[in-house]
């Protein structure tokens, strides 16, 4: 129980740190974002005094109130799900825009990450098992893929598979001209068709890391005494590989999920921009290009919360898989 | 591209000829990495001196490679090769700057916290872990979009801010085991000052890890900067691989089929990153001898005395 409590407390602290960072960043920065925003807003229509007040609260230029009170107000509004008003999509709420784009990103990154993790672990297991084989020697090549910027790989794939061969669509999340969003097969197949290339990009560029980590752990695990014992007992090699070596070797990869997930998410955000995928990444790009600070901060917050949530989930699962972590804590 | 394949090929060659000592593949990796990284660095240092102005426009727009332009021209007739040289210089500068800053930060948070212990350690490792789980690039994007005029140093600082945490965690783990070694205890008992123990007794043992973390930080920084510049948030007025890609994307290089515009910068990032990874592999193998990439034949040789007695027919083929 103590272990779970510790984990949850840690993630609450991390969440608080992210919120605080989000609150103080605009206050530390030079210039006055509210004036920029108001001038943008007034181009689209009259700005009410309450909008200005809301912006000031969010961006912290309202000097009437002490910073601490502003901070509490900010935390309160975040917990009420009120992230302010978007400038770009005025007068839509930031929460609504994020609500529209988040499912796309979670679907794409979620599926791609799971595929990449499973395939990477399996290949890494084989490479570590047959050390020095062609698969093992192939690993430096996959790490080259890892050093490839996600968005550049996306550009290249888009150029060859989308533009030259025209096997995949060039942009979008589904065919907006022929398909209506809904639970129909036409829509779902269109989504899969449009998501294939972005997903392939993410898998190709993140798989190397999983493979390398698993391969190295596999090699270390294979030199343990219990592997020799298993060999001595005359167990089937496949059983030794999967049930004895791989099961233990996979643990650091699982616990290292935290670090990798942040990296994968960062990479995917830019990938989405290349594919004009209707997810969080494209929304972030729009926000950045039009100085939409409210949307930008909201997206940063949502990305952080999602990553923290995924990590908490993995951590809790990890404790189930590996009882030693519970004891140590 | 071809050069990076050298490492696997070299070790495959060694596998065929087991007579040659097992050390070969290891040094081949290191050499390949050093040569490629060195060549790219040299290109970045010397290239801009010879290749002229990357901003100069000409009438020869979107020309394919050849015809006096080794890598063709952009939409406004700028020489891609000259841009590439300047971009290499910019990206490497960022990489080195961030690498240096990140390593100092991670050494501070990792080593000092772990050595002092107690509340300092708790606080430091909490900060480290929080920084580790907060996704880096979105944070960098948010920070840099607030600053209108960004210098190279600012971008480097922001990237360093988000990239030190991983290294700090590794350093902390190693320092924790080092601080309880006998020779450290001995120097503590003999009344040496804390900073001297840290600098003279502990730091030298962490050198290989620091080196590998530094290499990681450089890769991370170059990738991060490329992503940032690609969205248009890079250092203003500086050529980097990312800003080249930004201009290529905005100049519709993809739709116009101008592959010579967007392929080279990305390829250089990939090749440079792969070269650094190769160097990192070699460092890892020095730290952790278990990882050494022994060839099948070599392994079989030192396994024979034991496996002969132990393995059942049939297992040997798959297990070694």
Task: Describe this structure as you would to a colleague.
The complex is a heterodimer of chains A (about 325) and B (about 325). Chain A is mainly α and about 325 residues long. Chain A contains 14 helices and no strands. Chain A is globular and about 80 Å long. Chain B has a single domain (about 45-295), classed as MetI-like fold. Helices cover about 75% and strands about 0% of the residues of chain B. The two termini of chain B are about 30 Å apart. Residues about 1-25 and about 305-320 of chain B have low confidence and may be disordered. At the A-B interface, helix 1, helix 6, helix 7, helix 8 and helix 9 of A face helix 1, helix 4, helix 5, helix 9 and helix 10 of B.
- What is the terminal separation of chain B in angstroms? 31 Å
Please count the beta strands of chain A (DSSP E, at least 2 residues each): 0
Q: CATH superfamily of chain B, please?
A: MetI-like
CATH-assigned fold name of the largest domain in chain A: MetI-like fold
CATH superfamily of the largest domain in chain A: MetI-like
**Which whole number gives the mean pLDDT of chain A?**
81
| Mass-distribution shape of chain B | elongated
Count the domains of chain A.
2
